[in-house]
Specification:
elongated, 389 residues, Glyco_trans_17, eight-stranded mixed β-sheet, Beta-1,4-mannosyl-glycoprotein 4-beta-N-acetylglucosaminyltransferase, alpha/beta, binds 2-acetamido-2-deoxy-beta-D-glucopyranose
Amino acid sequence: MTEAGCPYCSKKTDDICENVCGGASRAALSMSRRLRCALRCFDLKALLLLFVGIPILVFVIYVHGQKFTYFLRPLWESPPKPFRTIPHYYHENASMEHLCKLHGWGVRETPRRVFDAVLFNNELDILQVRWNELSPFVSEFILLESNSTFTALKKPLLFASNRRRFKFVESRLTYGTVGGRFVKGENPFVEESYQRVALDQLIRIAGISDDDLLIMSDVDEIPSGHTINLLRWCDEIPEKLHLQLRNYLYSFEFHLDDDSWRASVHRYRAGKTRYAHFRQSDDLLADSGWHCSFCFRHISEFTFKMRAYSHVDRIRFAYYLNPKRIQDVICRGADLFDMFPEEYTFQKIIAKLGPIPSSYSALNLPGYLIQNADRYRYLLPGNCKRESG
Ligand SMILES: *[C@@H]1O[C@H](CO)[C@@H](O)[C@H](O)[C@H]1NC(C)=O
Ligand SMILES: *[C@@H]1O[C@H](CO)[C@@H](O)[C@H](O)[C@H]1NC(C)=O
C-alpha cells in the first residue's frame, strides 16, 4: 500500500480514500501516512472546488443576482418608520354614532361626498368587484386609462370597449384617457407619475371640492364599503389616512399577509391634495379591505401584466411567461417572478419563504363576489385553474 493510490480521490473522496489508502491493512497504516493521504485527497477536493465549484457559483449568482440582493435587503435597507395603527371597529348592527365614538370621532349631520379615482390598466373583473363594493357610498367614480402601459407598451383602451359592463355607475362616472409618451428604455415610474398627474386634472374636472373624501388606490386595492361609510359619516378623521388591507395573491385563496398600506383616503384640499401611491402620513386604519394582486381570469392577462408592470426587470427569463408555468405557479401559490419575499428583516423573509398556504375561508370577502360566486369562481378558494387565451 503506497501513496500512489491516493490520486484516485475524486468526488466520493471519503469512501475512496478509505478504500485506497485504508483498505485491508488500514490498521497497519501509520497515522502520518494516513494524514498525508488525507491531505492529498483534500488538495484534489480544493482543486475541484476551484475549477468546478467557483464557476458554478459565479453562474448561479449571475442568474439569481436580483434574488440575492432581495435576500440581503435587511443589510442595505432599514424598515420604514412604523405606522400609528388606528383600531377599527365595525358591526352591522352598531349605530354610526356609536361607531364614530369608538374611534374617538364625532358623527356628522350629513355624510361627506366620496370620490373614488383609479388608473385603469386591464383589471376588468376586479373593477366590477370594487365598484359594486363601493357603489352605495361613492358620489363620483373617476377612471383614467392610457394607451400606454407604464413600460411604454401599446395597450388597447380596454375600459372604453367594455363600458357597457359598468352601466350601474354611468351617471356618476368621469372617464378620461391620456396618450402615452412611448419613451423607450425609460424608468417605468416616470410614465406612472405622468399618468397620476393627468388623473389629478380629471379629479378636478369631476367637481371635487374641499373636505370631500378622495380615495387614492390602485384598482386592485379595494376598501371595504363599511370603512368608507364610516369615514364619510365621522367628523375629525385624519386629513390623510392610509388603509391597511389584506394582501391576497391570484385569488382570495392565497392570503399573503395584512401589510398592504398604499391605499389612502384624503379630505380634499384644493391646490394641496395630489394623487399619489406612496406614504403620505403616519396614520393607518386597521383591517380596511382587500388587496388582490394578479387576480386575473385569463392566463394572457397575467403575461400582459407581468410585462406592463413597473417591475418588468423581474422577468429574467423568457420561460417566466410560459402559460403552463404560470398556471402551475398560480395553483401552488408560488411567486411568478421566483423572487424572495420583499421584507426588511431576515426573520420575516425566512418566515415567508416558499408558496403561500391555501386558505379555505371565504368569510369577510367583498359582497359582490359572494352574490355572484358562479361568475367569479376563480377568485374563490379551491378554484385555481384559469381560462387559457
Ligand atoms: C341587531 O339588532 C336587532 C334589533 O335591534 C336585534 O333584534 C338583532 O338581534 C341584532 N342582531 C345582532 C346580530 O346583534
Ligand atoms: C395614444 O393616444 C394618443 C392620444 O389619443 C394618440 O395621439 C396616439 O397616436 C396614441 N398612440 C398609439 C400608439 O396608439
